[in-house]
Write a structure and sequence with these properties.
- The chain is mainly α.
- Helices cover 75% and strands 0% of the residues.
- It has one domain (39-217).
- It is built from nine helices and no strands.
- It starts with a helix and ends in a 7-residue tail after the last helix.
């Protein structure tokens, strides 16, 4: 509330530059023009709050986990399956809320990947961390917009899903503006950083899924 209603309007100026000129916000920070903008971490947290708020009220996905009556042979099984179903509903509801937290922890690692490929152009790590936070802020702004479109029905919801592609396009444009390089160089380095980061995300969420499966396996579900 403070960021969005503060009288100097820094958040709106920051968002405008973040969206309209990929990478320029990072460059302005590197040039020392920081007073006019919201700090990278506060920007990320402000957008995360909006994302969380929309996730709390947006229509839930239609994915379901159901067991037919033929699969249940004893009252104990029914009770155990109901507990499993409840835990799965809790996991499905909690998963989107955990994603921003996990990515917040992973942002420094993403910065490390861009530093690896662009250290000859920008040898210091902090500029890469700025870039990482700004990119993640844009990503969650897109995801928040997608959740907002979920109120408009199936067509609008599908459009919200397509918006995710904007994150990838933004990454390439922002990379070139922030760190330079030819189009060919940006293409392969941008793709490499994305692939490495996506592999890291998959690995982390796979670990979380394994932990969750073990948690669910702790229920008293006895097969005949």
């Amino acid at each position: 509330m403070h960021e969005f209603l503060h009288f100097d309007g820094k958040i709106f100026l920051t968002l405008k530059l973040l969206v309209t000129k990929p990478g320029e916000l990072t460059l302005d920070y590197l040039r020392g023009r920081r007073a006019r903008y919201v700090s990278p971490v506060r920007l990320y947290l402000a957008i995360s709050v909006v994302y969380f708020a929309l996730m709390a009220v947006a229509p839930a996905p239609n994915a379901r986990f159901e067991v037919t009556a033929d699969d249940i042979r004893t009252p104990e099984q029914r009770e155990a399956i109901e507990r499993v179903q409840e835990r799965m509903r809790e996991f499905r509801a909690e998963f989107p809320h955990q994603m921003p937290r996990v990515l917040f922890v992973l942002m420094p690692l993403f910065a490390l990947t861009t530093w690896t490929f662009y250290r000859s152009r920008q040898p210091y790590y902090i500029p890469h961390l700025y870039y990482s936070i700004h990119l993640h802020s844009f990503a969650f702004l897109v995801l928040a917009s997608g959740r907002l479109l979920a109120f408009g029905g199936r067509l609008a919801n599908a459009l919200g899903d397509l918006l995710i592609l904007a994150i990838f396009a933004y990454h390439y444009v922002a990379l070139r503006r922030a760190f330079g390089g030819t189009g060919k160089e940006v293409a392969w380095k941008g793709t490499a950083t994305l692939l490495l980061y996506l592999l890291l995300i998959v690995a982390v969420f796979t670990i979380l899924l394994i932990i969750w499966v073990r948690w669910v396996a702790g229920t008293d579900l006895h097969a005949p």
